[in-house]
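Re: beginner question about structure tokens

> Can someone show what the tokenized structure looks like for a real chain? I only ever see the sequence side.

Sure, here's an example I had lying around. Input first:
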Amino acid sequence: MLLKRFLLCIALALVPLAALAQTPVRTVVDFNGGWKFLQGDPANAEQAATDDSSWRAVEVPHDWSIAGPVDPKNPSGPGGGFFPTGIAWYRKSFFLPAKDAHRHAYIAFDGVMANSDVWINGFHLGHRPNGYVSFFYELTGHLRFGANAHNVLAVRCDTSKQPASRWYEGGGIYRPVRLVLTNDVHLEPWSTFVTTPVVTAGKATVRIESAVVNESSTPRKTALEIVLTAPDGRKVGTVTTPQQTVAPGARVPFFVQLPVPTPDRWDMDHPALYKARVRVKTSDSAASDDEQVQFGIREFHFDPATGFWLNGRNFKIKGVAIHADGGAVGIAVPTAIWERRLNALRALGVNAIRTAHNPPSPEFLDLCDRMGFLVMDELFDCWTVGKNPYDYHLDFQQWSSIDVRDTVRRDRNHPSIILWSAGNEIHDTPHAELAHGILARLLAVFHENDATRPVTQALFRPNVSHDYDNGLADMLDVVGQNYRENEILAAHAQKPSRAILGTENTHDRAAWLALRDHAPYSGQFLWSGIDYLGEAGQWPLITHPFGLLDRTGIHHPRALERQSWWSTAPNIHIARRVGAAESSAIDPGYESVPPSAREPLLLDWSPRNTAPHSESVEVYTNCEEAELFLNGASLGRQKQHPDASPLTWSVPFAPGALKAVGYRQGNPVAEDQLHTAGKQVRLVLSSDRRTLSPGRNDALVLTVAAVDDAGVLVPDAAAQVQFSVSGPGRIAATDNGSNTDHEPFLLPQHRLSGGRAIAILQATASAGRILVRVTAPGLAEGEAQFTAVVSDFSEFTRAF
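And the corresponding structure tokens:
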């Protein structure tokens, strides 16, 4: 009762929703502004309801945990990167116009971390334990309408029971929120599903299915009007279904097929996106509801003998696994940050993403659709056998079927998704009867809600748990296995009807050769694509350091070797080896020795030892030959190795320039240079963009580097740099990518690591000049200028 009075008595500024009156059909309102936030449970509910000083204004998406501080005493431990956890409250007050009192209202959350409870005007709408799964609640019957009536939406999230994860999960309402108003006769949420059962270069068949719900008190004759729009904006098909009578309280399915001649097929290098407008029409021909679904026309399949095929083309899936955090911004990641990261991965030859080990945000999938990445959408890191005392295994039996259903229905229109994954390294599998029963149930839910995509699972030590012998692996549409590449190749040889995929793999050359040299092996997903917070081993590490990119989006040296294997564009890179080349653990993450923070490869020609000595230099290239030069003198030319091993030279150190040139058919086509750094004298700011839009989706990454007189990066520079902004902009976060860095991310200063740091800049208005300055003691300051503009982000609008 005390909690209910607390929720009903909250006093704060009210948000009018004038936009609600703009359309008689469906109304979708951005609900990300005007929230108040309180960390912890109120000690006294009556006082908290009248004393607003303990609450602070925030906008969602919001990850409160990323503010820190990191501390070895935090109960999240190394898995959570030693970040804080606990209870947090959010509340939002709003008006609804009286004219909408007859409509049905829903509140949709893309993601709340975690164990969320939601109330409207004191009425408890529901509980959701999984922080990665989108959900919605109907508010109808619990709202107040009119100019003098206000509504209070309250959300409680709880990550206090720890440890609960093997990686950083953050906390709060970290993905967007929307209010949706519909009429009595409306489309069932997540019911519209567009598939392409026939796809050739000359024609395609597009099938649209949906369902209509009648929440009125009388039967309603209803039809669906479908309009297809091509990527260039042309209407390519219109059809209206036969009318059906929908009884009060009933749900009636509809489906229709449309031919599309010479379809513009979605592909990785041509991610063409169609739209389907679905409109509900009642007997008087009035529109009662509508929505727009984005989709792609493409055909793909996994062939047991030849691997993966897309639109008649056979190629290897060159994937990486990534977690949900965006480094310094935590799990509330602006779309622009993901876009920058994906562009950096694509430059290395990456063409696929595995969402480890939970569903991503819808906006991330929109981005993959637009950029042409393939996606393995993964659901769980555990089933009933937990990996932490308080992880999802406690809720799996009650919630897993619901979470699979909702995720598949939410995501199934994304053309980027080619696989569902039922789980990662599931520890139930040694118990065959238990695991078979669970997998059969999950597969039924997957296939019931999407019969067009295969389901895999990242099998863990399958020869130990006998998954290849007891039938579990063969329940999967595509057999996925983590690491141990020789074992999955042997499993295919044992039964050639198995389609096989590496669902998690090391950066080692042996793993790449297993993929390169075996046609049935469809692809691999490296662990990992980007360094992520948590799974840190032990203090003082806070990050898992085995990505191709570090947290700031800068590539590790290992990424350049990967580029020489995966990318088709001519490339060549020089690295200086300062540590032994060690093979990765057989099952990374389960070894007793924590990951090292030391990088065995450096991308500089500035050794600390300047006395006469030899340096071990490695050159990575996809060119036929490479030649190395020191201060203009050739150190010899080498041919590419058939086994993809690096080209190596022992180079007597001399300060100056080390240059590598790559040749194809005898012609130079690629070049890389390293220069010896002098004394650091100034700071340089750089970015790949000069315009910035306001709002949560856009952000610009500024890189600051300490350089010498010639502009060469000084790799041992470690100054504390301070960022300042004038004009309509703000520094949202700073970082340096170091695995042992404990400085707060949300402050406008940071220490350089490896001579670099970044600042994440966001605009606060849609016009004006933004000037960013960076200073450090003893160094000449750097500055950069940007222009705030009206948003040019093409975010796809959705209701649920």
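Each token stands for a local structural state, so reading them left to right follows the chain. The two ends are 32 Å apart (CA to CA).
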